[in-house]
Amino acid sequence: RVKMSAEEILVRAVELGKNFCLYFDELECDALCKEKILHRVLRNINSQLLVVRPDLNLAAFEDVTDQEMQSGKGMHFSIHIYKTTTPLAGLPVAFSVQVENKSYYMCCEREGGEMIVRFKEGEVPKEIPGESNIIFFKKTFTSCSSTAFKFEYSLERGMFLAFQEEGYLRKLILKKLPKDEVDETMKMSL
User: Fold this and answer.
1) Closest Cα partner for 78 from 60, 102, 51, 105?
2) pLDDT value at position 87?
3) Span 72-108, pLDDT tens digits
4) DSSP character string of 31-72
5) Number of C-beta neighbours around residue 26 at 10 A
6) Which of 37, 72, 126, 180 has minimal Cβ neighbours within 10 Å of its Cβ?
7) C-alpha distances in angstroms, 86 versus 83, 89, 90?
8) pLDDT at 18 over 60
9) Are 50 and 59 in contact (CB under 8 A)?
């Protein structure tokens, strides 16, 4: 501790390791802590709502009537906003949704060499001690559009939530965004 005027300032020890790398002792580890929750629907560029159907293991953007929206089955999302101890490229968020009195959270898993978006039964944790397959970074879609967003998967940079047409469905997927390109399938509004 160093005494300066009337206040004490805590000073941390540092070490120079191999190749003269700088290490700080006793610093707080990287962690994510839930800060607040927003309740929203997610819309694509066609104004369709994201609807989760856990019984079919499916999440897709659909045209929804006012009556269906009132019932809200699988379409009213909780967006869990996390604060972090490290500066990141975007606001860390996780998604959950209620379907028939059960809570489901969005995560990504590798299956057959590709990343799949899944909704699993359970709650979003209050604290995440390190990396997690449920965290996405919320970013503005373009610099001139402050009301539309894209969501980058935290464990695979350059991979974003998007939709892909499969027959009559617009299925929620993870998609690689080539550098400096704009992909409308990744554009979402809250």
Assistant:
1) 105
2) 61
3) 789 999 999 998 766 667 899 999 999 988 999 999 9
4) -EEEEEEEEE--B-TT-PEEEEEGGGTEEEEE---HHHHHH-
5) 7
6) 180
7) 9, 10, 11
8) no
9) yes
pTM equals 0.80
Per-domain residue ranges of the chain: 32-189
- Token pair for residue 85? 């101890």
Selection from 43, 65, 53 nearest residue 99 by Cα: 53
Domain 32-189 has CATH 2.80.10.50: yes
DSSP letters for the chain: -EEETTEEE----EEE-GGG-EEESSPPPP-EEEEEEEEE--B-TT-PEEEEEGGGTEEEEE---HHHHHH-TTT-EEEEEEEESS--SSEEEEEEEEETTEEEEEEEEEETTEEEEEEEESPPPSEE-S--TT-EEEEEEETTEEEEEEEEETTSTTEEEEEEEETTEEEEEEEE--TT---GGG-EE-
Closest by CA to 35, choosing from 80, 97, 95, is: 80
CA distance 44 to 105: 20
Q: Which pLDDT belongs to residue 103?
A: 95
* Residue 81: C-alpha distances to residues 9, 69, 156, 179 (Å): 31, 24, 19, 26
